[in-house]
């Protein structure tokens, strides 16, 4: 039976209802058989009735199933068998359909279970990946934090190393510059150099006075025509008789140049040698003034000012001569300090890589000619002039050309050039160093010291700490023995002798004091062996006994019971063979000069490094004795003290100053003088540079606007004098 011909039981029942009611077919049995129930007992066959003829029926289309269902009419027996067979096949097919359906359902359920299992597995895998990513993210964040910490530490270390390298590079650059400059320095005997400098300063003083008189005369000739109250012969009146008046000014200018011919010539000589100085601007200003005078005589109707700036150029020459005079006098005083010193000490600005700081230290003068070289070395103002002078000179030429050609009269170039150069070198810039150096050298000479110049003063000004020795804090005579407390084990003479032997063998200043006291008391002197400095004391052997001399802190560390000392006094405890034998009471007195020096160091915001071996001297003791703030003094360990006291500690550095006297007083006077000198020179150069550049721009603007009425000689002189007032006040602070 084909699958397409399948039909349900209801259709089969309707089909079988058309079959004649005979005993050959049992409808209920067939339905039961088809529905899968147990078939009923088949009825016995009934006698078949005679067949009646059937009426002809018109052919009508009928479904194939009906046609097939009518076949048992002709053969009822075969039809029943076929029907049963078909029913069985239908039931089998139904069972197979059900089995297939159940199989499909089972397969579907299995697929669902497999899908659920895969979904759960995917969820678990996704959760595992998420947790893994979170763990990786946390690990990455931790690693990033650690990396950031490491990078910050590395950056700090790199910054510290970079800072150190910058300081080292600066020191190397200074050393290279010094080596290059030393090739052009010729040294002479300090005695000869002192007399030569003093003689030159005297000559410059006299000649500068003559130049000042000429400057005043030139100023009078320049001002008198504009003021009726000032008497002036008509023949010298520039406005009424310009040829003679301008000629008189030019004559004064030439006479002034002849008086200061060395200063005038050095301006051009330094430019030709590639080292332009401030005097170069003065020389060019004087030359421009002469050219302006000549242009006024040749082209009288050129316009602009009628009076040349002769008085200004002569005044600038006077300022340059006074600057040279002050520098020569200061060098003469420095040479005098060198000549008076038998064994001078040198002051160095030494960079200590161990503590990453610049220390001001006193060390022996390794080479006597090194300080003389520093005196003759080009100074701060000389190095500044190498930059400022070419810029000012080039700017003056360019601005003069622009201003003159803007007016359509190139002949005005000489007027513009002279006017701009008259303000390009302010008096404050010309006198930025000589007067301050002279005042500082005079003050230091009275204190027993000398400084090489502003360049070395700037090095000392950059120091952060000052290394102080025992003699700096407590010079000879400020330490004395107060009393001896004998505990009865040995005599007073033995206590004093053992203490003197230990401290003398250790090389302490305290040992000299105790030895002198022992000799004064006619005591017994001993010899110490195996002397060793320890923290807070000194140990050694005297005879067969083991001796320890130290502070209360050392006794506490050793477990020796002691009593507290008195205020203003320092106790030293002597232990003989592990037993306390006596107590020596010492008094450290602060001298007036040392006290002032320490207070001066405090005002200068400098800290002290105590390079002392005396175990009684500590930062706390120094701060208390000199009434200093807490943290003012610092003291390295014994190994660090030995490194600081090494004679070769600052070897290789250029000496900045020398000392002819011992003590902290001259040392601090050098540092104070260096600070004032460096500050005064820096301030004067700053003000002078600003005044020069500003004046050049103002004059150029007035020239560009052809405002000749705003540029008379009087205005230029007032501009120069006004800007010199603050420099003069700053210079007086160095006295």
From TrEMBL:
Transmembrane residue ranges: 204-223, 243-265, 277-299, 305-321, 386-406, 412-437, 684-704, 710-730
Keywords for the protein's UniProt record, in alphabetical order: Membrane, Transmembrane, Transmembrane helix
Stretches the record annotates as Disordered: 36-140
Claim: Membrane is one of the keywords in the record: yes
Stretches with biased composition (Low complexity): 38-50
Originating organism: Butyricicoccus faecihominis
Keyword Isomerase found: no
Name the UniProt record assigns to this protein: Uncharacterized protein
Compositional bias (Basic and acidic residues): 84-140
């Amino acid at each position: 039976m084909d699958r397409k011909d399948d039909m349900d039981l209801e259709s089969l029942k309707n089909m079988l209802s058309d079959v004649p009611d005979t005993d050959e077919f049992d409808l209920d049995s067939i339905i039961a058989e088809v529905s899968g129930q147990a078939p009923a007992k088949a009825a016995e066959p009934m006698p078949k009735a005679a067949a009646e003829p059937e009426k002809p029926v018109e052919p009508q289309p009928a479904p194939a199933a009906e046609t097939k269902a009518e076949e048992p009419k002709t053969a009822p027996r075969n039809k029943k068998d076929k029907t049963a067979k078909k029913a069985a096949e239908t039931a089998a097919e139904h069972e197979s359909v059900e089995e297939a359906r159940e199989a499909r359902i089972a397969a579907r359920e299995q697929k669902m279970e497999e899908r659920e299992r895969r979904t759960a597995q995917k969820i678990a895998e996704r959760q595992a990946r998420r947790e893994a990513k979170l763990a990786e993210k946390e690990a990455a964040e931790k690693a990033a934090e650690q990396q950031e910490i490491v990078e910050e530490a590395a950056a700090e270390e790199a910054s510290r190393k970079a800072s150190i390298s910058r300081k080292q590079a600066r020191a190397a650059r200074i050393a290279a510059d010094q080596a290059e400059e030393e090739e052009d320095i010729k040294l002479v005997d300090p005695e000869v150099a002192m007399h030569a400098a003093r003689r030159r300063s005297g000559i410059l003083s006299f000649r500068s006075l003559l130049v000042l008189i000429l400057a005043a005369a030139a100023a009078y000739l320049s001002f008198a025509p504009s003021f009726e109250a000032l008497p002036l012969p008509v023949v010298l009146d520039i406005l009424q008789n310009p040829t003679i008046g301008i000629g008189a000014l030019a004559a004064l200018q030439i006479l002034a140049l002849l008086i200061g011919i060395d200063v005038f010539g050095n301006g051009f000589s330094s430019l030709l040698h590639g080292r332009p100085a401030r005097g170069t601007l003065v020389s060019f200003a004087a030359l421009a003034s002469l050219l302006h005078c000549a242009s006024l005589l040749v082209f009288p109707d050129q316009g602009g000012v009628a009076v040349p700036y002769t008085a200004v150029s002569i005044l600038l020459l006077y300022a340059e001569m006074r600057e040279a005079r002050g520098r020569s006098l200061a060098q003469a005083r420095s040479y005098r300090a060198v000549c008076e010193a038998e064994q001078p000490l040198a002051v160095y600005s030494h960079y200590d890589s161990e503590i990453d700081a610049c220390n001001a230290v006193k060390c022996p003068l390794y080479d006597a000619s090194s300080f003389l070289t520093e005196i003759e070395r080009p100074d701060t103002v000389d190095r500044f002039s190498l930059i400022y002078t070419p810029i000012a000179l080039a700017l003056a030429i360019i601005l003069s050309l622009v201003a003159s050609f803007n007016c359509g009269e190139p002949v005005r170039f000489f007027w513009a050039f002279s006017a701009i150069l008259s303000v390009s070198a302010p008096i404050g810039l010309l006198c930025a160093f000589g007067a301050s150096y002279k005042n500082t050298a005079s003050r230091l000479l009275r204190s027993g010291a000398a400084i090489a110049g502003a360049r070395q003063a700037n090095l000392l000004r950059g120091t952060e700490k000052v290394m102080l020795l025992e003699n700096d804090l407590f010079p000879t005579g400020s330490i004395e023995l107060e009393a001896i407390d004998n505990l009865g084990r040995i005599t007073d003479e033995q206590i004093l002798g053992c203490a003197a032997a230990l401290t003398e063998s250790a090389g302490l200043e305290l040992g000299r004091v105790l030895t002198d006291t022992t000799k004064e008391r006619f005591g017994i002197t001993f010899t110490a062996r195996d002397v060793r400095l320890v923290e807070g004391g000194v140990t050694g052997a005297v005879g067969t006994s083991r001796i320890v001399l130290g502070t209360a802190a050392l006794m506490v560390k050793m477990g020796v019971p002691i009593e507290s000392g008195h205020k203003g006094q320092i106790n030293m405890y002597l232990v003989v063979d592990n037993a306390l034998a006596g107590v020596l009471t010492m008094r450290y007195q602060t001298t007036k000069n040392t006290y002032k020096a320490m207070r001066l160091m405090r005002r200068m915001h400098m800290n002290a490094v105590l390079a002392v071996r005396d175990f009684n001297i500590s930062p706390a003791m120094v701060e208390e004795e000199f009434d200093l703030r807490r943290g003012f003094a610092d003291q390295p360990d014994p190994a660090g003290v030995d490194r600081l006291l090494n004679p070769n500690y600052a070897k290789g550095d250029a000496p900045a100053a020398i000392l002819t006297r011992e003590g902290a007083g001259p040392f601090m006077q050098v540092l104070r003088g260096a600070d004032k000198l460096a500050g005064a020179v820096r301030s004067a150069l700053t003000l002078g540079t600003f005044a020069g550049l500003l004046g050049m721009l103002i004059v150029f603007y007035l020239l560009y606007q052809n405002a000749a009425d705003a540029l008379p000689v009087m205005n230029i002189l007032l501009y120069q004098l006004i800007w010199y007032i603050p420099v003069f006040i700053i210079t007086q602070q160095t006295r």
